[in-house]
Amino acid sequence: MIAFENVTKKYDNNQIAVNAINFEIQKGEFFVIIGPSGCGKTTLLKMINRLIQLTEGTIRINGKRINGKRISDYNIHELRWNIGYVLQQIALFPHMTIAENIAIVPEMKKWETTKIQQRVHELLEMVGLEPAQYSDRKPNELSGGEQQRVGVVRALAADPEIILMDEPFSALDPISRTKLQNDLLELQRAINKTIVFVSHDMQEALKLGDRICVMKDGEIVQIGTPKEIIQNPVNDFVRKFIGVKEDALNVFTIQQVIEPFVEAKHQSYVIHSVGDQATLQAILQQLAHYECLAVKSEEEIIGVITRQSMLQFLANHSTERGEAND
Ligand code: ADP
């Protein structure tokens, strides 16, 4: 649905920020772009809503080209209104209320007042901000995490097909950050939008992405699901990027080792449980005592981790790391 064909961006100082790249993002996909600072992530993202003009190549959305020196099948307003955008710095208008901030694009699209009010109400509820309490407040009366929540739903307000997010949670404290990541995943499951998300944090990418695109020096090094990237990194750069944390066990998430909960098989010995946000390090400590752990999300068992599956995972992973150190 978003297709990049030989896309290059060269800045005026001759800096090539993005170099002849080709790839496609599917409809409804959560696509994370990751890589070190300066590798071209933001440039790539901003070319999608034409905040940055590409130098060569073509970008198509649903088959229609968005750019071209002379031709574009979209007008710029149509394009921007149909693409939500969330930035790292909370860019709410300080003199407007929360409700007014959320209503900006629906207002521009000339929605009816009652429809806008309903939409604002629904969106605030969606991210756990009680509308009666929050609608009339000004941004400076909200915490950083709450403001960012408003930033996220504002991008959804006019029901865009695509949402671009540029390190939206990186300025937040770790607790708000985890909470917002979880909310976003839930939201994505409910609304099934195409999300293009820039991050420099592998743990965040592994947690959120359906697919991850690893970039280096303006080029794509690897695109794959979290599992593919972990199990088959294409080169040392990707291997090192995955293992960038001092403790690799903290990089992987429960999703990589969880297996389905089959009651008949496991119920006799699942007594202990861990939350779905536990690190592998924490799970390993638990598995030293228990054969099998139930993984719970909001008090519901979503799967199990057995000593055997964990050992298998570690064995596979240690081979990869061993090779990387050769
Ligand atoms: P990232 O988001 O991965 O940190 P960017 O897309 O912001 O990377 O930048 C990619 C490269 O392009 C960097 O080397 C950066 O210095 C350069 N760059 C970004 N914006 C401009 C600009 N407006 N003019 C010149 N060079 C730029």
TrEMBL record:
Q: Which UniProt keywords apply?
A: ATP-binding, CBS domain, Cell inner membrane, Cell membrane, Membrane, Nucleotide-binding, Repeat, Transport
Q: Which GO terms describe its cellular component?
A: plasma membrane
Note whether Repeat occurs among the keywords: yes
Can you tell me which family this protein belongs to? Belongs to the ABC transporter superfamily.
Q: Does the keyword Cell inner membrane apply?
A: yes
- Protein's name according to its UniProt entry: Quaternary amine transport ATP-binding protein
The organism's place on the tree of life at top rank: Bacteria
**Topology in the membrane?**
Peripheral membrane protein
